[in-house]
Amino acid sequence: MTVEYIRYRIPAERAAGFEAAYADAAEELAAAPECVAYELTRGVDEPEQYVFRTTWTSPKTQNEDHLKGYEGDVTDRRRYENTAVRGDGGSVPSLYDWIGGDEALQRLTEAFYREVLKDDLLYPLFAGMDPGHPKHVAIWLGEVFGGPSAYTDEHGGYAHMIRRHLGRGIQEKQRRRWVGLLMDAADEVGLPDDPEFRAAFVSYIEWGTRLAVINSRPGVKEYDAPMPKWNWGGHPPYRG
Fold this sequence. Notes:
Blueprint: E1 2-9, H1 15-31, E2 35-42, E3 49-56, E4 74-81, H2 95-99, H3 101-116, H4 123-126, H5 133-144, H6 150-155, H7 157-163, H8 172-188, H9 195-215
Antiparallel strand pairs: 1-3, 1-4, 2-3
Helix pairs in contact: 3-5, 3-8, 8-9
């Protein structure tokens, strides 16, 4: 990812026209396949100061045909690369806290796997399941949703989870049943049912189970990847 910052100094009498020009430019950015996100901000203490931020999947500069006449107002222009340091601030509760922490996730996985072991479609995948498996999955979900890094610290992180699915040959109908039973368990144990939380929760479950199916196919080799971190946006940063 490349993040580009362009800083402008725009007199008050030209501000409306400048913002209108960027609104036009934004239509082209929204359609650009290399553009991930863009944002125009205006100074609070110094309203004549503007910063335009664009995130690209690969190094690129926006087409500035819409901004002719503002070249002389640019005060600085720089590009940066993303680092691993990112996250939400304290004003935004983590999904882990919103769920109710480890206790709620333990209730979820206990209720869920109780039904899995009764299900004719899923039982073949989980016959002989380690009695500690529900707890381990709760710990995994806790870390994914912003809680303690216990799965990474104690259970081998994402690489271990991938190994658990290699060669299992999970079928799409089994994935769908798994998702359905988990949603039922979420209702049974009283996980939050507000649309914002459930949208983020379902987003991860869909992503995770579809990836599990892919990793279970013949010929997939062991690999490692960063631990997924889910938030209210519903997905990790797009990697392209």
